[in-house]
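Task: encode each sequence below as C-alpha cells.

Item 1
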Amino acid sequence: MFLADLLVVFAVTAVVVFLFGRAQIPSVIGLLVSGVVVGPYGLSLVDDIESVELLAEIGVVVLLFSVGLEFSMSRLQSMLPLMLKIGLPQIVGTTLLAAASTWWYFGTLPQAVFAGLLVAMSSTAIVLKLLADRSETGTPPGRVAIAVLLLQDLLVLVAMLAVPLLAAAAGVAADAQPARSHAAGHAEPLFTNPLAAGGVGLAVVAAVLVAGRRLIPQVLHAVVRLRNRELFLITLVLIGLGTAAITAKVGLSLALGAFLAGLALSESEYGHQAFVEVLPFRDTLASLFFVSVGMLLDISFVVSHLGLVGLIVVAILVSKLLATTIPALVAGFPLRTAILAGGTIAQVGEFSFVLGSRGAEVGLLTADDYQAFLAVAVMTMAATPVVTGLLASLCGRLSQSQRLGRLFREPPPPVGAQLHDHVVIAGFGINGRNLATALTEFGVPHVILELNPETVRRERATGLDIRYGDCTRAAILEHAGIEQARAYVVAISDPASARRSVRVARDLAPDVQILVRTEYLAEVDELRLLGADVVVPAEFETALSIFERVLGIYDVPEETIDDLVDDLRLENYGFLRGRGRRVALRSDGTPDLLDQIGSCRIPAGGVVEGHSIGALGIRAATGVTIIAVRRNGQLIRNPGPDVVLQAGDELSFVGSREERAAATAMLVVTLTA
C-alpha cells in the first residue's frame, strides 16, 4: 500500500534527521541515510519504490520552480557572463579530465566521454537546499555555483542527444536489463534529429519567457481578484507542472521547465506570494528526492569495493573543485570565493542518474559500472555538506594568516545588491500611502506589501516598489528584507493579521523597530507584548492632536508640548485609557502633564524682582515649572534659569493645585507686604 510506504518513509526520515540534527550533521545527509535504511539495499521497508520516486520527481520540479521564483530575468541576464566564463569551462574541463582518466578502463573514447558527462553534472537540488539552509544564495560563491548549475541544466538536451550517438560510435550493445530510471523525469523526446530538437527546445524556452511577461500575469491577476487561495494555488501547480511537462516532452529536463516557469512568474507582481504558497510543498517533496537517491545505494557493493569507490569519490571531488576554482580565478573572483564555489558543486548531480540509466540501456555502461556510478554519485552528494563546511572553516583560518590572509578574506558585499536599512510597510491604505510619500520625499528606501491586486498593479506601473504578498507569512517578510530593515510599519486594518504579522516579524528580526497603527484600544497592550515597539491607536492620536493645539492657544512652548506628548506615548496612552485622574508620568518631579496651567504677574516692589529664576529656586521651593514669561508684549518661551524677573512680568507655569498656589504666594509677595 502506497500510503503505508509513504508513512514508513516519513517516520524513518523524521527519526534519522532528528538524530543527525542532535549530532549537528546536515539534514541532507540524514535524508540520504534514511533512503538507504528504507530502500531495497537496506531494510526493504518500502515496496512501492516507483511511487515514492514519482513524488520525488515532483519534489525536484517544485524545488526548481521555487528557485525560479526567487530569480528574475535581469538577475539571470547578469549571470550570463558567469555561465560563459566559469560554467562552460567547468563543464568542458570536467568532461575532458574524466574522459582522459577513464579511457584506459572503458577502452573506447565515446564511453570515456560519456563517463565525463556523468561526472560533469552537479546536483541542483543538493546545492540549492544547502545554500538555502545556510542563507548563502546571494553570496558571491552562491551566485557562481548557481550560474554553473543553470548552464548545466540548459545543456541537458545536448547530453541526452549525445547518448545514442556515443553508443553508436563506441559500437556497444544494449544491456539486456536496462537500469531503472530515476529522479529527473525525462519523457521520450518528440524529435530525434539534433537540429530539430534544438530548435524546438529553444522555441519552447522563448515561448515560456514571453508568456511569463504577457499571458501569465493576466491570468494570475484574474485569479487573484477572486480572493480564492485554493484557486491561486491550483493555478500555480498548473503553470509549474505544465511547463515542466512541456519541456520534458521536447527533450529538455523537467528541472529546466520548472525553473523557467518560476522565472516567468517572478516577473509578475504575484511572484513573492507564489513563492510562499509553494514553500511547504517544496520542503516536503524535495526531501523525498534525497530519500529516493539514498534508496539507490547498495551498501554491500560499497563495502566490497570500498577502496575503489573511495578513491573515485575523492578524485571527483578534487577534479570538480579545480575545474570550477581555476575558471573563477581567471574570471577575477577572489581565491576564497572560487574555492567555496568549487566545493559547493563538486558532487555528481541527479541528472546524471538519468544519463547513467540511458547509458546502461544502450550499452555504454555495464551493470557493475552502473552500480559503481550510483555508489560514487550518492557518496559525493552526502559528502557535499561536509566538504563545504571544511572548506569554509579552512578559508576562515587562512584569512587570519599574516602571509595568506589577504587571499582568503571575505570580499565586501556589492553595494546596492540587497535592500538594507530600509522601511517595510504592510498595507497601502491612507496611512501606508502617506508614509510612503513622506519616505520618498526624504529619499528613504522602502518596500510596500499589499494584498489588493488592483492597487499593486497600478502603483507598480508608477515605479513604486510595491509587492503582492501576505504580511503574516515569514517568507514574504524575508523577501522584503525584514532582517536588514530599520523599521517595519504595520498599517493594515485587520487586527488579527496585524498581531500575526508583528509576531512573525519580531521572530525574524529581533532588532527591527516595529510600529503598528490600530483602530482599537484593546489592541495596544497585546501588540506590545507580541513585540511592537510603538502602537498608535487612531482615536488617541486624534485626542493628542487636539491636546497639542489647545496648549498652543495658551502659549505653551512647542518644546514643552512635544515633551508632554512624547511622555503620553511612552506610557502607551495610559492616562487617556484610564477613568480616573492620572498620576505623574515621571519620578523626577516633572508636574502632571494635564494639570491646569497657572499664571501670575510680578508686582512692582515684589521680593522676586531683580532675581533670576535659578537663584530663586522656584521649582525646588514650590514644585511648579515656569514655561513662559510675557514681558512688554514679547513672549519668552521656556525661560532658562538665568532669566531675571522684572516688575510687570506675567509668568505661566504648570503644576498641581497646591503647587500653583504656593508659587503664586511666593511670586506676588511685595517688600511692603
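Item 2
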Amino acid sequence: MNYKIIMKRYLLTCIYILTCFALHAQDYPIHYTLSIKTPGNPAKQYSLAGKEGEMVADPAIPVRARQELTAKDSDQVLRITIEAKEDAYINLEGKLSLNKQQYEATQFYLPGFWYRKNMRSPDKAPNARVSKSWIVREDRLSTPLAGAYDKATGKGVNLVRLDTIDQVALTPLNHGEVILGGPTNLGAIGFGEQKDRVFLSFAIPYKEAPHSYYRKLTLGDPVTSFVLVRSGERFTAEYLVRSFEAGDYSDFVAKSWTTSMETKKPAPVKAGEFSDQEIKSVLAKFWKQSFTSTKDLKGYSGVHLQTADCEVIPLLEVGFVGRVLLNAFNSLEFGYQQNDEELIHISNQIWDSYLANGFTKGGLFREVVNEYHNWETDVFSIRRQSEGLYATLFYLAYEKAAGRHHPAWESRVKTMLDLFSKLQKEDGSFPRKFDDNLKVKDASGGSSSCTVPPLVMAYQYFKDKSYLEMARKVAAYQQAELISKADYFSSTLDANCEDKEASLYVATSLYYLAQVSKGKEKAHYIEQAKKASYFALSWYYTWDVPFAPGQMLGDLGLKSRGWGNVSVENNHIDVYIFEFDEILDWLASETKEPRFSDFAEVIRSSMRSQLLPYEGHMVGIGKVGYYPEVVQHTQWDYGKFGKGFYNDLFAPGWTVASLWELLTVGRTEAYFK
C-alpha cells in the first residue's frame, strides 16, 4: 500500500481518537471547591475551574492546584496535585458532572453502602428520601468507587480512587470542620443531583455530607476534615473515570465489580501458616467453653457476650445469630472425626434437649430462649426456622449414614415442612415474621431464599417432590422480585434494608437448586446465581482500609480485603461467608469467570486466622476460639468504641459456624450424592 495513504490513515485515526477523548472529557466537566482553614476560624471556600494545568488564579490562595487528565486505554485517569506555597490546612472537593444524565433516570452505586437509591432503608439511615446527594468516607466502601447508571440510555460511569490509601489520622470530632491530628490520604467519594442532573464527587481529605453516619440509625451532622500541607509539600490523588454500556442495573453492578477487581487487584492475605485442621481445633474450644443450659434446653452461649471475658449466659438462638443447632452438628461431626467423647456427648445432649423441649405448641422451633432475662420470643422468623431445619437435615443425614436413625426428629421436620407449606404465598414468597399460629407479622418476602436450602435438602432426604416444588416457587419469586429488579433486601434480622445476606442467600438458594437440576433448568439457576453473586461480592472489600496508630485492629495488622460489610444500616465488617466461597468456586467453573475463584481465595486467606484468638494471639478477645464479629473498620460504631475496635458485645456463635463451613469444603455437594 502507498506509504502516503498509510500515513494519512494513521493521522486520521490519531485525530479520531484524540477527538473522541476530547469529546469524552467534555461530557464530564469537573468543578472544584478548595477550602482553606485557619485554626479557630471558619474555613474559606474558593471555586476552581476544572481545567488542564494550574487551576488557581488568585495569588492570595496559599496553595497551587493542578489537574491532569490523561487517556488510559478507553478510560481517563484524573490526577490532582496540591502544592503549598505556605503552611495551609486544606480540603479539596471535586464534582464530575454527568450532564446528559437526569437524576430520576439514574441509579447510583457505592459498593457495600448504596444501591440504586437506597429506598429500602429507613429514614434514619442514608437514602434518597433524606437527600439526593451524598459523599462518604472511602473506608466506608468495599471499593472506593462511585457509580451512576442511566436507565434511559444504558450508560454507566465509574469513578474510582486509584492511588494507594494507606494513612489515616486520629480525629477529635466526627462532625463539623475538623483539623486532623496527622497526615492522611483517606478521602471521600459520592454522588449527587443539581438541577435534575447528576454528578459524581470526591474529596481529599475526607468529608461526609449532608450527614455523617456514625451509629446504627443515627444520622449525624456533616463533617469536613482538613490536612496540613506544609510549605513546599505536595499532596496528590488519582482517580479512574470509566464509562461503559450496561444492559440493566445488575449488569452495571457486575461490570463495576469487575472494575473494582481490575483497579484494586486484591491478592490473598498472608496471615499465619495454619492448616484448616489446626484452625478447627482452635474454634472447637468455643464449644467446650460455651456449653450451657436453660431450665429445659442445652446449647452454646454464643450471643450477647462481652468481648472482654466471654462469660457464659443462658441465651440460646436456633439460627442466626447464635446458630446453636448448626454448631451442634459441626461439633458432633468433629467429635467423631477426632474421637473426642466430650464433644460427642455435648452435641448429643443439645440434639436430645431440642427434640424434647425445643418446639412451640404450634410446631415451630423455639427460636430465642433467654433465661438470662426470663424471656423467649413469640414472634418467629422464616430465616431462623429455616436455618434450624438446615442444620437438622445435615444432622439426620449424617446420623443415618452412620446407622443411627431418629424417626422422632424426622417426624418433627415433616411437621415443620407442613407449616412451611401453609406459610408460602401464591407468588412463592414467605413472610419474614409470624407468630405460632402462623399469623403474619411482617409480610416482606426478601428473606424467602432462606427456605430453599432446607427444602431442597428435605426433597433429597425424604424423596418427596412437593418440597422441591416449594423451592422452585421461591426461585420464581426471587427471579421476578429480587433478581430482575436488582433489589436484594430484608435478610438480616436486625435491619430491614439493602443488605449483603439477601443477595448471598439468593445465590446460595440457586446453588442448592442446581444440585438437583439438569439441562436448561440447571443452566438457568446458574445464570441467576451469577447475577446475585455479583451483588453479594460487591459488599466484600477489595482493599485494605488504613487504621491510625493506637486503633487496635490496625496495630494487630488486620487486612480488610476479603471481609464483607453488613448492610446500609450496619456499617461494620464481619466474616459472614458460610459456604459462599464454595459457591464462587463452583460458579467460576460453571461460567468460566476466574475472578470468582480468585476472590474466593482472597476471602479464604483473609478470614481464616487474622482475628483467630489463640494463646499468644488473643486479638482483644477474652477466650480462645471465640472469633470476633462487629469489626469496626470505619468511623462507625455499633454502640461502643468506634473505628479500629470491636463493639463491646458480640455473637461468636455464628462466626464459629460461618468459618467452620468455610473450612469444610464439599459438604453440600456430598449431601446430594
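Check on item 2: Confidence is low (pLDDT under 50) at residues 3-25. The first strand starts at residue 30 and ends at 37.
End of task.
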